[in-house]
Amino acid sequence: MRAEQHRVVDDGAKQAARLKVGFVLSRSFTLSAFALFVDTLRLASDEQDRSGRVLADWQVIGSTRHLITSSCGVQVAPTSDFVDPSRFDYIVVVGGLLTVENPVDQQTITFLRQADAKKVPLIGVCTGSFILAAAGLMKRHESCVSWLHYKEFRERFPELAVRSDRLFNLDRQRGSCAGGSSAADMAALLVRKYISRDAERNALEVLQIEKARTPSDVQPRRPLYDDYDDARVKAAMITMEQFVDGSMPIEKLAAMVGLSRRQLERIFIEKTGMSPAKAYNRVRMERAKSILAQSKAPLIEIALDVGFENASQFTRTFKRTFGQTPSQHRAAALRAH
């Protein structure tokens, strides 16, 4: 069954099918993300914990059979050379440290582009989306990255769509996830689509995971300003932090979390006691407050960073928010240290 079809088939057809996944591991890849993804497939492929490749199969593919060293030092050997990418239902690229120059070689880039040409879906796990983006393979697709890597992705690929409020994205031709335990969530979704819900349940139970999270689940993190018990509010706050220069219109912010502006305003008043616009301003001021305490950047530079046209306007807003001027706050922070 071709991955791009994404259609539901009956249980008999599912039992006859095998989900085939090829893994491309980058230099200094994240071992936990790879292990969770492949182990979800392994446990779903057979009953209980027998590890038979009955309903799924996987290979670690590479341009050589040389050992690939993960970011923690553990090495993994490729099990297959580059073959016809259409043998696989998905090609999963597992990224790792962003400080590594050329995380994959040119043969790997060529292979990924061949997979794209043959309509084989590509998935970037952890920072694997950076590798796909650098290869020109994330155009017209939205990348999902960890909130830790969001700023760097925007700096490297300003023309590409990216978000870090969700755990993972998966459409017909591309997938991406934040890494960590979300790799198991994404793998579980593939298992459910191409094998069965029972296989998914078996895998998660053995992994001691209560239930798989969905693409709409919010990344677990504490926002810069505060934390709230409504996923839509949390997602909106995270997005505000990403666009701390104030460039995200409230209407678009509402649409990103599946609400109208009026609905978003009502939920914000209920959950935070303030409007989205006021919350957005507070997020910007909290970021400025943090920069003031941690750097010697000029006030005008900080003002521009958080979306103000001049230092005087920024100073007035900061004082109205915190009861002291930016200079007074910086001086107090220096005394405290």
Write a brief structural summary.
The protein is 45% helix and 12% strand. It has 337 residues and is of the alpha/beta class. The protein has 2 domains: 17-205, Class I glutamine amidotransferase (GATase) domain (Rossmann fold); 220-336, Homeodomain-like (Arc Repressor Mutant, subunit A, Orthogonal Bundle), CATH 1.10.10.
Question: Can you offer a commentary on this structure?
Answer:
- The protein starts with 10 loop residues before the first helix and ends with a helix.
- The protein is built from 14 helices and eleven strands.
- The chain has two domains: 189 residues, 3-Layer(aba) Sandwich (Rossmann fold); 117 residues, Arc Repressor Mutant, subunit A (Orthogonal Bundle), CATH 1.10.10.60.
- The strands form three sheets. It has a seven-stranded mixed β-sheet with strand order 5-2-1-6-7-11-10, sandwiched between helices. It has a two-stranded antiparallel ribbon with strand order 3-4.
- The protein has 337 residues and is of the alpha/beta class.
- Helix 2 runs parallel beside helix 6, helix 2 crosses helix 7 and helix 12 crosses helix 13.
- It is elongated and about 65 Å long.
- Helices cover 45% and strands 12% of the residues.
